Each structure stands twice: as C-alpha cells, then as structure tokens.
C-alpha cells in the first residue's frame, strides 16, 4: 500500500534527495494522517457517547489531537520548503522542527484535559455498555493505526524526517492505548469492574508521556545535537578516498534542518605538493559532497611536512604518550620550532567531551614523558572539543 501511494501521488518518489520530493512525502503523510484520524475520531466519539465510556471518548480525543498534529506537520513541511532569503540565509527547513514542537504542545494539552475528566470518572464511577459496534470500531481503529505506524515509519526512514518518525511512534502508542481501552471495557462487561476512569487516566498519562518524548526529540536538533555518525563516516570516507589527503580533523557539521546541512573540515596534504593541484582536488571533493551526500562542504587545506625524520619521530612518540592515557585521544597540526636552548612542540589534541576536565592531567603526562628525552622540549598544546558537532 505504501509503495502504491508513493507511485500514485509523488513523481520520481525514489529521488528523496530532491527537496521537492521530500516535501511531497511530508504532504502525503500529513493528508493521510488527517483523513484517517478524523474518521477514527468520529467513529470513537459516537460509540463513546452512546456507551458512556470516558476511556473511549478519551481515545477519540487522542485521535483528534493526532489529526491536529498532521495538520501542523503538513503546514511545517510546506513552510520549510521556502528558499533562503536575506533574513534566513540558511533556509527555513528548521520550521519542520518547530511544527513538531507545536504537535507536542497540543498532545500535552489534550492529555492534561483527559486526565481531569478521567479523575472525575474515578471519583464517580459508572457502568458502561459494550456493544459489538463499539468493539468493532475499536479493533478497526487498532488495525488502521498499525498501518499508519508502518506507513509513517517507512516515509520517515526514506527522507530522514524526525517529525514523521515521531508520528509513527505516536501511532504505535495509540494502538497500545486503544488496546487498554478494549481490555477495560471487557473487564467491565464480563466482571462488572468499573475501571473505565482508571483506564482513561492511563490513556491520558500515556498521551502526556508521548507529548514529552516528542518535545524532547524536536527540541534536541534545535538546541544542537551531535552529528549523525553515519553522515560523519560518509564524509570522512569521501574525503579520504583521495590519495592526496593524508588525514582529516576538526570536522564540524551544522544542521539547519532537513536538506540544509553544512560541514567544514581540515584536510592534511603534503606540504611539497603543488598548491594549485591541492586546491583543484579540494574543489572536486566539495563538489562530490554536494552531489553524493547533499552536504555543503568547505575544506581547509593543512600542509603537512612528511620528510623530516626528527619531526616524524617525536610526533610518533607524542602520539604514543597521548594514546597511553586514552585510546580515544588523537593529535593533529603537529609542528616543531627549534631554538638554541629548547624546541617547541606545537600541536592540537582532540578531546572527547567525557575527558574535558582532564586537560591538566594529559598535559602533565606529556611534559613528564618528554622530560626523559635527551633534547629539551616545551609543548604548546591546544585542546579541541569533540571532533564532530552539529548546530
């Protein structure tokens, strides 16, 4: 069904790197969500009123919130495709994250209201009627929600959309909450247990929890989260596939929303290589990064001396000292400046966030080990934070 809908409504649907195709995915998911959730809301609300079951009405309200969420998602995808302008030179793609935050706020509001009505039902319990129609509507709702979860998860994975992945998770949660409602109605019908209010409260708390989780998932990229490990690997492999590249460091990834990814990196190349040839290779790599990964990449050229035996030897020793403290540590931009009384070793150490408080310990270890060398070495160390970041 998913593949059929994609072929039917989205031209060139496999080209998900195209911003227009990506937006079409979001619009399709939004429209499907609106239609399905409004139908489910209407059906559940009718049987909820007729049966007097607040848990069913609560579940219906949950579907109404999902329909509202789909509307917000649809608007978010539409606004996020607006091109860059003077005020927003990096585009408007982060609007998709804001739409996800609005969805979370609506879910939380509905959850709180349902908790209030369920609490009242707990204080004043009433018997509820379970009919074949009510049971059929609820079971049908679970089947629809299972399909919607798979549909949105598939689309979210194809276009790497956090909002669609959140929608898929919400649909899976709805299946669980509706199943709880069904169990509560069956318990009341067969055993006379008046647990409708309690089931309604559980559904309300589940809705609130879902809202909090969705909010966390959408706030994280807005605040700035770590770069996607797979993307970092792809960028690194692309650059290092060029034989003139000796190594890379200081890779930073800046995410301004889906389709608006910018990255910068320092690439080490032989200092004796032709600068014009190096520049040409860098241009090619930057072009490939956009064509293959849709990443706006800027590469800084770092010339590295490779034929100085003394420098290579002391660099090897410093690397071993650093790694003896922690295998995750690495160095770059290693230079040696000799003087009449001592030699300065100037280099950067890449420091994982977990070791940020260990700068002094690492520096002391290096100084202690180098003091054993015949030559007098002073170190000038710059500590870099984690090798990748996303803003």
Concise description?
This protein has 391 residues and is of the alpha/beta class. It contains 11 helices and 6 strands. The chain has helices spanning 2-9, 19-51, 54-80, 95-123, 132-159, 162-191, 196-223, 229-240, 275-293, 309-325, 359-370, and strands at residues 245-255, 261-270, 295-304, 330-338, 343-350, 377-384.
What can you tell me about this protein's structure?
By secondary structure, the chain is an alpha/beta fold. The protein folds into two domains: 2-223, Cation efflux protein transmembrane domain (Alpha-lytic protease prodomain-like), CATH 1.20.1510; 229-384, 2-Layer Sandwich (Alpha-Beta Plaits). The protein has eleven helices and six strands. Strands 1-2-3 form a three-stranded mixed sheet, covered by helices on one side. A three-stranded mixed sheet has the order 4-5-6, with helices on one face. Strand 5 (343-350), helix 11 (359-370) and strand 6 form a beta-alpha-beta unit. Helix 2 (19-51) packs antiparallel against helix 3 (54-80) and helix 8 (229-240) packs antiparallel against helix 9 (275-293). The chain starts with a helix and ends in a 7-residue tail after the last strand.
Helix content, binned percent: 55-70%
CATH homologous superfamily of the largest domain - what is it? Cation efflux protein transmembrane domain
Structural class: alpha/beta
Report the average pLDDT across residues.
86
Total count of helical runs of at least 4 residues: 11
Radius of gyration over C-alpha positions, nearest whole angstrom? 29 Å
CATH topology of the largest domain: Alpha-lytic protease prodomain-like
How would the global form be characterised? Answer: elongated
End-to-end CA span: 37 Å
